[in-house]
Protein 1
Amino acid sequence: METSILGFGGSEIGYQRISARTVARLLGSALDAGLNVIDTAECYENSEQLIGKALGARRSQVHLFTKCGHGGGWSRADWRPSALLSSIERSLRRLATDHVDLIQLHSCSLAQLRKGDVIAALERARERGWVRYVGYSGDGEAARYAIQCGRFDTLQTSISIADQQALDLTLPPARERGMGVIAKRPLANVAWRYPRKPAEPYYQDYWSRLRALDYGFLKGDAAVATALRFTLSVPGVHTAIVGTTKPDRWQANAALLSAGALPAPEMERIRARWRQVSDASWEGQT
Ligand SMILES: NC(=O)c1ccc[n+]([C@@H]2O[C@H](COP(=O)([O-])OP(=O)(O)OC[C@H]3O[C@@H](n4cnc5c(N)ncnc54)[C@H](OP(=O)(O)O)[C@@H]3O)[C@@H](O)[C@H]2O)c1
């Protein structure tokens, strides 16, 4: 796969109940801007249906990624191989396509991975022509095992100025094996925009970490640009899937990247600050 460095993260359009009309505009402008990666999941509410409907005849212009493991919703994981296969079949119907380019196990545990039958289910889907590649989406020791077992083509993992565990733990072995790496939550949810601790638990860890990290650049106009360029400058990262609900973000985010990779001294300052402030509890966040 030849992927654009900027991809589209499909969780927010589902969870925030964005209209089909807005999603059509959003994806239309993203594709026009040169984006060719769309990531979604079986449990992001109606995200798959919205994407399938919006893509229509432009399906062949994108690499379509989805996930499996929570066919009945995020809180109801079901790792039985039969459930994974029926979830993948349902994703094809929802996405209005005969195959997806990548199917990912949606953050199953290390114990589940070790059993092996969840991986075999994805391989069966590949044999049936439903998916081109198989991947693991997750963090920490489970992600490390997924790399080492040698059966996955890709790793989707959290990488940002507020989430750097993967840089030491999983990216070096993933690079060695030539795996495709997808950075999820690449802007750390822009958690620094909230003056007080946000009520939404999903944002709270990054908000607290960013408070402690207190990067000077977060106070200036280039905060989003620096955060995104950091993620994309990490060796081994192929694409960063930014979540958004706003059609104008694509051109804007693509423009932020025109300056290229972050200069090495700036990268090193962000890395050094992380090493100085973080502790063992600052693990990769799901
Ligand atoms: N376990 C998993 O597999 C897993 C877990 C989490 C996430 N993911 C994937 O990763 C994707 C991205 O994660 P995410 O959406 O949580 O985090 P993210 O991409 O780090 O942050 C998304 C937030 O950034 C804002 N944003 C984007 N561009 C901006 C800009 N130029 N200026 C200011 N704000 C901007 C968006 O707000 P606006 O709507 O205002 O643009 C949105 O609230 C998800 O959609 C999903 O596909 C996977």
Note: DSSP finds 13 helices and eight strands in the chain.
Protein 2
Amino acid sequence: MAQYSIGVDLGGTNLRAAAISRDGEVLSKIVGRAELSLGRDAVVDDMVSSITRLREQCGDHDLVGVGIGVPGFILIEKGVIVGSNNLPEFENYPVRDVIEQRLGTHVFLENDANAAAMGERWMGAGKGVDDLVLVTLGTGIGGGIISGGKVLHGFLGMAGGMGHMTVGPRGNPCGCGNQGCLEKHASATAITGMARMMHLGTNPTSEDVYNMALGGDEKAKEIFVIMGRALGIGLASLVNIFNFPLFLISGGPLPAWDLFAPSMFSELKRRSFTYRKTQTRIEKATLGNEAGLFGAAYLGAPQEQNH
Ligand SMILES: [Zn+2]
């Protein structure tokens, strides 16, 4: 059997784990519910038992490591999570070391958006590209920066927080203390928020708004134009700062690409000299929810063996 690593993706609703070979082949996969309401110990137990099951299926001998992607900031050196709204009980708990001890194998803990960026770089739309940014549009906006083939962490592990980049100095207030954050204007939550303000349905999901726009609803279409504009403003800064060849967008609103991309690109052209003068690509990510799983598995493997 081929050498493999195990990737774990702990999300708000699902806990997913997969054994993935060094070539990126999924050998086995487990999808379960993330029982966050049962508390920290139950979640840790679930992670450990998922990993153990995969290890039993695929063989102890060929396992080279485990990577775990979780929401929140990760203090990379310490292997702890700080500031995760989904996982308050994990705050400053040595989760990496606890899991490592229980499994007796190398564990790497990473922020889920960073893991997703690495997943796209390994097996998705960023295959073979050493420098890229992934922007994920979800409840909030997360992102990961891959520079020189590695996750850019910053000095503690908090880099890549493009969701809180200011795109409008007098924009919507954000839980982070700022106002006009990108995620307050371009996330799935921002789309539904605008829909509510425009009285589109009672409690529409971003998919509902998308379907209304497809059906020709002018207000719904306008929402995606506004959202694309905010995204374009954010991307212009990212393109200017990084001069990377590739910027990927993922997340729930991605199917609405044709509705938001025109205003995104026009804003980008207007605001970024670098974008106008280079062959910078802005593209859809291709792995969807799987990106985090692939990235976690990739990062779980000892890095010197990666290529
Ligand atoms: Zn913010």
Note: The first strand starts at residue 4 and ends at 10.
